[in-house]
User: What shape does this take?
Amino acid sequence: MNILVCIKQVPDTTEIKIDPVTNTLVRDGVPSIINPFDGYALEAAARIKDKDPDTKIVVLSMGPSQAEAALREALAIAADKAYLVTDRIFGGSDTLATSYILYNAITKVEELEGAKFDAIFCGKQAIDGDTAQVGPELAEYLDYPQVTYALEATAEAGALRILKEGEDGNYVVGVKTPCLITYTKPSFDPRFPTIKRKMAARKATIEKLTSAELTSIDPARAGLKGSPTKVKKTFVPPRKEAGVIIKEETGEESAQKLFTLLSESHVI
Amino acid sequence: MATYNPVTPEIIAQLEQIVPGRVVVGDDVNPDYARDEMPIYGVKMPEVSIDVLTTEEVAGIVKICYENNIPVTTRGAGTGLVGGCTPICGGVVLCTMRMNKILGYDLENFAVTVQPGVLLQQLADDALTHDCLYPPDPGEKMATLGGNVATNAGGMRAVKYGATRDYVRAMTVVLPTGEITHFGSTVSKTSSGYSLTNLMIGSEGTLGIITELTLKLIPAPKATVSLIAPFEDLDACISTVPKVFMNHFKPQALEFFEKEILISSEEYLGKQVFPRKIDGVEAGAYLLLTFDGDSMDELDPIVESAAEMLVEEGALDVLVADTPPKLKDAWAARSSFLEGIEEQTKLLDECDVVVPVNKIAPYVAYVNEIKGDYDFEVKYFGHAGDGNLHIYTCSNDMAEDEFRAQVDKFLSSIYQKAMEFGGQISGEHGIGLGKVKFLAEAVGPVNMALMQGIKKVFDPKMILNPGKVCCTL
Assistant: This one.
């Protein structure tokens, strides 16, 4: 199976502090990391490869040349090859322009690799923008079926079996390949790279794709120019606490449980 | 044996004069003030508790207690593990948790002055915003710095940077008489008489009450990498430890643990962090190392050759954590060992012996050899880098009396073995209430008498934290 994992380099928001005077984010000295959800997508691909060592994992990122560090980390964790889409004219792209560029880049990578990808794995969203739009938009450009909020994936003949998160529980769904899957946080973390992979990744060549290689891209649809999104205001949404679902055998038992919980937390 | 007086309404009225509205009496006292994290060594409610705010308040209260022969026990966050802050004679408990201000940095001398109730985590985070590191790194980050100094707390980074003692420059102390005095200064050298500062460090609240601390900082290392080395068995794992130093590596931290304790910690965290199998081989024990330096370029070759050495010594593989999320994951698993054990255990006792690093392997072999003679389970992990082992006795089905009797015998044996190997009975937790008897056995009557003599010079009426360290009731 050939899997392409899309990753984005983001600032580690757990390290970001608010400047008490200006009320803006202090980004100085904040380390860059692989977007955590993309890390889960990479781990999902690695788990498929654990079962079938013939699996090939390619990682793709778009960003400035510093994003190479994220790609090297992905190579150290599990990827076999890495591509970086980087060009000044791609800078400032919104989600629409980004997914358009990535779509063209994927087509180019398939041409260079001489094979189609069976599955495109993405994180459900990036922690710096939180839009959750690029994955689904990319699926539309590719005209692939998509499964969002995936937790785990297993490869089957011509298909993937996906455990996905839902509002009221988890679902298992089957999807024919080629397809696009976006991942949320599962109960495990991406694996630690081994020292051997780490050293190899440090020396690995990262293929760069610029507008010169990606000739199919219409410059009017890329970068700031190609981005219809206008950001009027950004804010941190208030944190919503997780709810508790009480589902006992009988209604009476559920009521009893609710009563116990409420009295334990001193609400009543 | 000292005799103490009860806290009468008249004394309460006097205390009220000093801290109006903050004298808490009888049933209103927070039950947490009766114990630390090891209630097995005893639980006793004080008659009065006071959350103190200033040195002068402490002095005023202590003076009243001194004049009236009332025991005074100081506590911070109560995270101790030897019953050190349990007020076993009742009396007055002074809690320093509200003395929680970082008073100021002296960046020209790399020092910071804090109140004793500042939490370790609070100082660690704050110092980093000044590009400084406060190196002592005990597992319990919610402990107060006053408590850390009182027990000479150690932690993971002690292997490279030393324990709390190495970072205390000066302190303000209220003596049991109520006098206020200062020990030490910000300078790094002193040859000026007996070191009263060092006597206070590790004295567990028996000599004086620390109300202000000046601590040493270092420039924060700019790069950190951790290595995880799984081994097939504990023996191969521990035998590697001295090799780390013989090969001139200087890890900031070097920990060892067995598979079982990792599993209980991962269950507590709700996620698997470290791999259990490497190329089909089950890992039985792990080493976790951290290296720090000024840049990744400086660290990369060190990490590579350390990894090579680990593999030569039998590591099944070497995994790397060099990004903030991975470092956090790796150390979250390590930091939750105690919580993992506590959650699964009804009856728990522990010790934190320290032995020379080249004696860890035979020491652990001895513990494993004798543990079969007892009905409880024995779990352990340790700061391999400095030979400090945390050994836990755990039972869910023994009767408490039987458990205590067996643990007593077990601890006597393993303490004796630690001394035989040239070790000490406590590396970082202290003696408190729980280990007085064992300290006496370990250091002998001459040294015990010296310690008791020092105690009497500071505290002639024996009112400060009675029944602890070198004094029984």
